[in-house]
Amino acid sequence: MPITSCGLRLDDEAVRVGVGLQLGLSLCVPHQCQCGSLVSSTGVHSFVCKKAPGRTARPHALHDLIARTLVSAGIPITKEPNCMSRSDGKRPDGLNLVPWKEGKPLTWGHSTVVCTVADSYVSGSAREAGTAAKTAAQRKEAKYTTLHGTHLFQPVVVESLGTVEEATSSFLAELGHKISALSGDSREISFLFQRVSVLVQ
């Protein structure tokens, strides 16, 4: 439902683009991108272009949404904890400051929005829905294997055409239940998934 106060309202242009992407319609005039690549009328190049602003904006917005959701569920967190840098200096997106399960704190890593129709994913996506998200989640888990003994690592991966990776979906549902327990509103899970969908669009 397009409820502005819940962050669930898209403007007309976002609806046009979102529907067009789902149906494979022409969204723009073919042209040359500032990166030098040819952009087809479907406009999907913007998902993979290294110079496209949305390529980094969506993952950052997804990271902020996860952080705000954890705080709404009454879970204290810290963003990009310095104490958990890998050998390459990269850190997970966040860490909750109390045990999550099995006496271990939860950390979630570099929220990712993968392009379902990118050249590297399109053949797998054509065979099975969610393949792009599953592959990206496996790569994230491999990057943070050193944390498995002391932390519970949760990759947060969503596909550009809306599929939420299975483990991410379970994690979001669990967060929604925790918020529902505090607010008394059973629709919190649905609202959370809708916020993720609107954010990706």
In short:
This protein is of the alpha+beta class and 201 residues long. The chain is built from seven helices and six strands, in the order H-E-E-H-H-E-E-E-H-H-E-H-H.
List the helices and strands and how they pair.
Layout: H1 12-23, E1 31-32, E2 38-39, H2 45-48, H3 54-72, E3 77-79, E4 94-101, E5 104-114, H4 122-127, H5 131-143, E6 152-159, H6 166-183, H7 188-200
Parallel strand pairs: 5-6
Antiparallel strand pairs: 1-2, 3-4, 4-5
Structural features, described:
With 201 residues, this protein is α+β, with helices and mostly antiparallel strands. The chain has one domain (52-200): Trna Endonuclease, Chain: A, domain 1 (3-Layer(aba) Sandwich). It is 42% helix and 17% strand. It has helices at residues 12-23, 45-48, 54-72, 122-127, 131-143, 166-183, 188-200, and strands at residues 31-32, 38-39, 77-79, 94-101, 104-114, 152-159. The strands form two sheets. It has a four-stranded mixed sheet with strand order 3-4-5-6. Helix 3 (54-72) packs across helix 6 (166-183). The two termini are 15 Å apart. The mean pLDDT is 83.
